[in-house]
Amino acid sequence: MRVECLTREKVPAFKRYCQKHIQKLDQSYITVTELDSFQPDEKNPTYVAFDENGEMTAAASLIINSSTKARFRIFHSDSGEPDIYKQLFDAMQKHTQKLNYVYLFTQETETNHRQMLESAGFEVERYSYVLAREPKRVLALDLPDGCTIVPFVFDRDEELFCEVRNAAFAQHPGNETLSSDIINQIINSAYYLEGGMMLLKHNDRAVGAVRVEKEMENGEQVIFISSLSVLPEYQGKGLGRQLLRACLQLGEEKGIPKAMLCVDSQNDRAAQLYEKEGFEKIESYVCLGRTVPNGKLVI
């Protein structure tokens, strides 16, 4: 078994490996669309392993940005050898000097993968659920006096959106600060949906925010709702429900009536809201993470 840095020439083999195992892994960053423009570089360090026949048997790919936390796009081996995880970790060390934590998601039903990760020093951080809403009637908005939902304007509203979203998610497990730079990348994303970013204002003050994208799920186009946020002092007033309905209405207007979203298992209030609005749980994921002492992935 040999481990090597992924070269551009072997990117097609890496993509095939991801697609081979995609049904058993977190699909967030290994779909055909996500990998369409993928290239290994300093922000996407990737290492792979090959058996004696030259077949790819393992892959590890990090997504590195300005944060000190990095998420694995994929960290998986089909060789059944726990030691390969250590070898991939060791190879990744040169890219982790500025990090203090790495993590990934795996399907809750994939116990073997989870055990392999735990043997490599990962620990369960939290659980997350994927919820879906089949096409059905969307109830009308019922905004309180003084409240309006307005479209997000690029090159103007980035700071407002980040301020609301970051304040709302500050105490949530796994939260990572959203920056204007990340928002500015959205408009060029394959998932971008025109009109899919909105702000909820109360007397001209931004107090809520949400983001809607378009995705393909099992060959069917859906809207995916994320960053549904309400400032802490405005929570409990039904504003999150109004933002959610605005997203569902947008999906209907775009001819994409099916909706999906994720919710943390500890966020009971949000989960109850989504269920009351017609969402049902369809998948469960485990988030596993581990610290990176002094920027080194030590096992």
UniProtKB/TrEMBL annotation:
Residues 148-299 form the N-acetyltransferase domain. One of its GO terms (molecular function) is acyltransferase activity, transferring groups other than amino-acyl groups. The keyword Transferase applies. The keyword Thylakoid does not apply. Keywords: Acyltransferase, Transferase. Pfam families: Acetyltransf_1. CDD domains: NAT_SF (cd04301). This is N-acetyltransferase domain-containing protein.
